[in-house]
Amino acid sequence: MIFDTHAHYDDEAFDLDRDSLLSSMEAHNIRRIVNVGSSLSSSESTCRLAEQYPFIYAAVGVHPSETAELNRENIGHIEKLGGHPKCVAIGEIGLDYYYDEPERELQKEWFAAQIQLAIQVKKPVIIHSRDAAQDTYDIMKAEQAGKCGGVVHCFSYSKEMARLFVKMGFFIGVGGVITFKNGRVLREVVEDIPLEHIVLETDCPYMAPVPFRGKRNSSLHLPLVVEQIAQIKGISTEKVEEITWQNALRLYKMGGK
Ligand code: NI
To answer: At 43, phi and psi to the nearest 5?
Structure first.
């Protein structure tokens, strides 16, 4: 059984075949998906999607690149959605210095505020961090993100950084990049970090694994990621599925569900 811990099925890339695609998941062994919001409106549509499909759960939050839309009033909307019965996490939140917009101070302010919100509603966080390893780590430390825990998704840093996040109680999100020619650093991370701290993710419609790189991604491609991890760890694909499934349940505190 495969658990996709990070997907964006509310994206318009799925407008033409969303229902038929999602309805095919179970037959392909994709048994649980967390759809992740990245703005106020996509957090809303994420909750709607989770209401429609029993195997889809929701994460609500505002991506660093979208934080210019936030203010003291509308952040209450995320807090409210955080109480949705199918909401399992606050995210995606974080820092993106690759696109580097809006200004870093604003990104930092809302990253910290949304970690506090997660601690308050007792949900883990899903962290998006690009070209911002040190600031991400420093803010997590300062805001005591270990209290809520979570995942650093689409992990793109060194194994030394990965160890620090793991030490703070965080999971490492691994997706299509592990199959890329230039995915060497991520393969090193996966080799180094115990499998108990790794979760599977697509970030679909983005990040399709080889040989689908550049095309629309979906959870149906996750077996390619599983295979790559199994190869690196020298274990069976069944074992990778089993352990990462358990990890995802721990990450999203879904033990009894
Ligand atoms: Ni994402």
So the answer is: -65, -35
DSSP state of 204: B
CA 39 and chain centroid, separation: 14
Please give the Cα distance from 34 to 150 (Å, whole number): 13
The alpha carbon of 8 and the centre of ligand 1 are apart by a number of angstroms equal to 7
Q: What is the pLDDT of residues 52-77, one digit of tens each?
A: 999 999 999 999 999 999 999 999 99
E strand or H helix at 153: none
Distance 93 CA to ligand 1 centre (A): 10
- The model's pTM is 0.97
63 C-alpha to ligand 1 centroid (Å): 8
What's the sign of the alpha-carbon dihedral 41, 5, 91, 62? negative
Question: What is the C-alpha separation between 125 and 15, in angstroms, rounded?
Answer: 27
Determine the distance separating the centroid of ligand 1 and the alpha carbon of 116, expressed in angstroms: 20
22: which residues sit within 8 A by CB, 6+ positions away? 9, 53, 56
Q: How many CB atoms lie within 10 A of CB 142?
A: 10
Element (H, E) at 77: helix 75-81
- Give the environment of ion ligand 1: residues with CB less than 5 A: 203
pLDDT tens, residue by residue, 89-106: 999 999 999 999 999 999
* DSSP structural state of residue 112: H
Please, what is the angle between helix 222-233 and helix 184-192, to 10°? 60
Please list, in sequence order, all residues whose beta carbon lies within 8 angstroms of the beta carbon of residue 119, skipping any fewer than 6 positions away: 143, 144, 145, 147, 148
Nearest to 250 by CA among 212, 182, 199: 199
Ligand 1 midpoint to CA 40 (Å): 14
